[in-house]
Amino acid sequence: NAGVTQTPKFQVLKTGQSMTLQCAQDMNHEYMSWYRQDPGMGLRLIHYSVGAGITDQGEVPNGYNVSRSTTEDFPLRLLSAAPSQTSVYFCASSVPGRPNEQYFGPGTRLTVT
Amino acid sequence: DAKTTQPPSMDCAEGRAANLPCNHSTISGNEYVYWYRQIHSQGPQYIIHGLKNNETNEMASLIITEDRKSSTLILPHATLRDTAVYYCIVKANQAGTALIFGKGTTLSVSS
Fold it and tell me: Which residue in chain B is spatially nearest to A88 when comparing CA positions?
C-alpha cells in the first residue's frame, strides 16, 4: 500500500494562475478531505467527500473546487491563485464509519507570489 | 466539539516512557478522545483513540480517567523518532467537520 499520495511536493504559482493539487489513496477509503495548514493556525478543512460523486464544503472553501469521480482520487483545484493561498496542503482519507481516524498524505507546499 | 488543554512542551529521555496529559473537562457522552502527532514537515499521523476504556495499540497506550475529563497518552519506550507535536482531539464519531488540532504538546526526546 502506498497510502495517501500527493503531487506535487512543492509548487510556486503567480497570482491569478490556476492549478490542480493531486491526491490519491489505494486503501479503498470512502472518506477523503483536504486541509490547509498555516503557521500558528493549525489545520483547516477546505472540502471533503464521503464517497465517489459526493463532495461538500468545509470551513474555508472559497477559491477552491473539488470533484470525486473515483474512490481513489480527490483533486483540489485552485481557480485563480492568490497570495493568501500560500500554505501547506494536506489530503487525508479514512475508512467508512471512522471519519476521525484519518490517514494524511505528505503535503504539498504551495507558494503564490 | 469539547475543548482540550495540553502543556505546550515536554521533554523525555530516550528509552523512557513519555506520558502526555490532556484535559477535556467539557467532553460529552458521545465524544471520543483521539490522539495524533505531527513530525516536522510531515502530515499528521493518527495514533490511537478511545471512548471510556483504556486502549493500547502498537504505537501507544491511552488512559482515560473514569469521569472522562482527562486522558494520558503513553509512549512506553520513547525514541528520537517520537519527537513531534502531539495533539489531543475530542470529537464525536461523525463526518463533515474538521479535526481541530489546536496547539498540541511539543515532545522532545533526547539521548
Answer: B41
A16 contact partners, CB below 8 Å, separation of at least 6 = A80, A81
Chosen from A10, A104, A108, A109 to mutate, greatest number of chain B CBs within 10 A: A104
CB A37 within 8 A of CB A88: yes
Amino acid symbol at A5: T
CA–CA gap between residue B79 and residue A72 (Å, rounded): 34
List C-alpha distances in Å: A86 to A4, A37, B59, B63: 22, 10, 33, 39
pLDDT single digits (tens) A52-98: 999 999 989 999 999 999 999 999 999 999 999 999 999 999 987 88
* Average pLDDT in chain B: 93
> Amino acid letter at B24?
H
